[in-house]
Amino acid sequence: MKQFTSVHDVADINALAEEALQLKQNPYAFQHLGKNKTIGLVFLNPSLRTRMSTQKAALNLGMNAMVLNIDKEGWALELQDGAIMNGTTVEHIREAAAVLGQYADIIGVRSFPGLKNRDEDYNETIFNKFAEYCGVPVVSLESATRHPLQSLADLVTIQELKTKLRPKVVLMWAPHIKPLPQAVPNSFAEWMCKSDVEFTIAHPEGYALDTSFTNGAYITYNQEEALADADFVYVKNWSAYEPYGQMPGQHTAWMLTNEKLKVTAQAKVMHCLPVRRNVELADEILDGPSSIVIQEAGNRVWAAQAVLKQLLENL
Ligand code: AN0
Ligand code: CP
Q: What is the value of pTM for the model shown?
């Protein structure tokens, strides 16, 4: 693997998930691979899991890991080409990314969408500039439209816990108080569409995702129909793709409860976290036997480690 920005960078997603599960059994078997290699993790937005699990994965492989919260600790970044920098921005992304590439063998970048200009977000303007100017392999730590390290960890968790060959997996929209990116559901959908699962997406009218991520999924506005016989329910809020970044309705009744889970095949409930309790998901689910959110977050380490291992093997 030369970079990890989406499912399209992966030759065989099942083999990669399998590799992650093997690393979980034997975390330190490849310490030699990362000797004297450094990963730079650059955050333009907050993170708990991605930050810690990717550092842990790098350390398990014998790498050094450096973290820069560039939005808070770096110089104010200019993103526009040709800008006359006589205002508030101090450093252009051209120099910033190129310099970071001098210090690291691999660079991870987190850059959320602005949710204002769809073209800018869906062209991955910021992420792609980092990738272009840094000159080393890049890993997405969640970009404007995708979160592939999360999706790989989700696939690993489903492979680990499934009790039938082809489980039914449901991506279920959840209520929220503010507009969130489509990155997690886009990415989960494109990974599930390539996996050996029966994949359904359920959301209220107005919350359709970009169809280029959902090709092959069964899509419904009926929450109960989607939940019927489900083996895994993946809960996530997202804002509308059209009109972009808007919230066409609060739909608070879509919050998942134990009562609603009764029609499932004793489904396991997933969420990428962070989750707003009693807005997106009821306490009774998060604190009950259906939830696998902590195991899912734990698997972020093995997903990241499988990806870094393949990138190191290709350096
Ligand atoms: C982010 C999102 O929805 O993309 C990060 C999730 C991993 N979540 C929030 O902003 C709450
Ligand atoms: N799930 C996830 O990516 O969490 P963080 O935003 O805390 O990294």
A: 0.98
